Amino acid sequence: MANEPRNSQKTVTGSEADQPSSEPSATDEQGADKQAPTDANLQSFGPWLSLFGRDPLDESMSEALRRVGVDAESLRVGHSELSVMTDICKGITLTFKLLEENAYEPPPILCELSLFLISDAEDEDGNPSPSYERALPFELKRADSRDDLRKRFGIPLESEDDEYCVWDQWAVASYAVTVEYSDDKNSIKTITIEAP
After folding, report:
1. Tens digits of residue pLDDT in 9-28
2. Whether 94 and 189 share a structural domain
3. Which of 73-77, 158-162, 180-184, 189-193 has the lowest mean pLDDT?
4. Rounded CA separation 29/56 (Å)
5. Distance (Å, rounded) from C-alpha 186 to C-alpha 176?
6. Are residues 92 and 173 in the same domain?
């Protein structure tokens, strides 16, 4: 029904990533790759940040998705959904969201990227999902503790510390950056970057 509230998301799975490249790449101050997307650097977060704000059918976005094995046409938002997610390669998930909840079926835009450094998820066969192994954004290090990042970025805009997860969020560059920590709070588990 067209008037049903949109409150869910669907997930689309892309191809598995190749092994990380040892090729160095030029980066900007966020650590994003400056060069044009190639099959090798699409396995990293940088090219995807440059595609924030675009819908799956945008020519550049569609080509990048095709190169990692995702059909752009599959990233349509259903009538009861606000967003659609897709795993594009080892440890990277993209989230496309609708900007206007009341619109019937506009294309969603890329506005969130998650890097899973330690994955709790499993595939359909019960195997652990692959973890992100490449360079991290904003000069973050896998071994950064909660204390380290609070010293570096200051008091978080938002945070959570309960039995289920521990995370902090800051405004970094022009993004909202959320870091979820390991259970002992001594390393990074997940980094989520959201468009402003």
Report:
1. 444 444 333 333 333 333 44
2. no
3. 73-77
4. 26
5. 21
6. no
